[in-house]
Each structure stands twice: as C-alpha cells, then as structure tokens.
Amino acid sequence: MRLYMVPGMQHYEGGPVPNSFGQFGAAPSDEPERNVARALERWVETGEVPSAILATKHVDDDPAKGVEATRPVCGYPQTATYKGQDAPSDGMRFTCTSEGTKTR
Questions:
Q1: Residue 33 domain boundaries
Q2: What is the pLDDT of residues 40-61, one digit of tens each?
Q3: Is the pTM of this model over 0.70?
Q4: Nearest 5°: phi and psi at 45?
C-alpha cells in the first residue's frame, strides 16, 4: 500500500496545482509515469511500485487550452521539492524528497 498526496488539490479534483493524473479515466497520457491507472496496472502486473506520477495542470482546467504546469505526485512521506533551476512550472524541475523542503 502507498499514499500519494497532492498538496493544493481540492477534495478530489481541481485547485491551483497540477491535478490531472488519470484519476477520472482521462489522463494527460497513457504512460504509467503520467497516468495513475496505468501505474497501478504496472504495479500489479510487474511489481514495479511507482515512485511518482507526473500530474498536469491545464490552462483553466481545460485540456484543449494546453498545459500550464506539471508536478510530480510523490509517494508519502516524500514531497515534490523544487530544484531551483529554471521554470517552476516544469515538473522535471522537481524531485521527490523527504527533506521537509516545501514545494513552490
């Protein structure tokens, strides 16, 4: 069992943070790294535990308007920590740590 928390996400969707990662069937991607359903499927079938899933925030929460930001959803107790390099809207600029550093 693992817990993946999304700081800043409202009850089960929405909010000002990247909040789309396949939890409602429509994921930004079919890749397990961006889709919680595919990550769970891979975990059950191969035993590969997802360390993080890359969530997407769409402009106005509308996929047709493009991507505003991405951020990893990390397995608890880790959190997404900004590396301090370039655009904080790029999820690749974050790493999952348990150092207590806050996300940006």
A1: 1-73
A2: 999 999 999 998 999 999 899 8
A3: yes
A4: -80, -30
